[in-house]
Design goal:
By secondary structure, the protein is mainly alpha-helical. It is built from 7 helices and 2 strands; from the N terminus they run αααααββαα.
Amino acid sequence: MILNDLKLIETYKSFLQDYSLEQIRYIPDPGVWSIGQMYDHLIVVAHEYLDSAEACSLACEENPRDKTTFGAYLFNIGGFPPIKIELPPELNASPNNEKKKEDLILELDQLMKRMSEVKMKVEKINPNYKVKHGGLGWLNAQEWLDLVAMHFRHHLRQKYELDQKLEG
């Protein structure tokens, strides 16, 4: 699965080639992120998910608790439903809108490298060692790793909508 996940992130990298710096930073409407902010969000959250995957190895005891109903649904369908998900205000800070294309590409490269490293660790972590996700419940290391790609796939629709606003 990790190869498909890395290919997905590589695709996001290739999309960046088509944007100017002005397009990356363009905020189409109040309350709507720029393309650069969407990329920043994806990278920051991916690292948080990878931190949690690694933290599962520190759990040191099996955890019988499970996902929330929404978490179970999400993993059963293999991704987020095609809806906008509103985070609570304390978790919904605006992502960075100052990065250049080169910064984002470098950060995506670093993320892919880290994902490969974490994947090798995850294979050795007891699947019953879990860390809690605020909305999805208790996830094991593999589920945290899988969540990275699920989150990238979820934001493809947002990228498409932002592209439409750039063309409009």
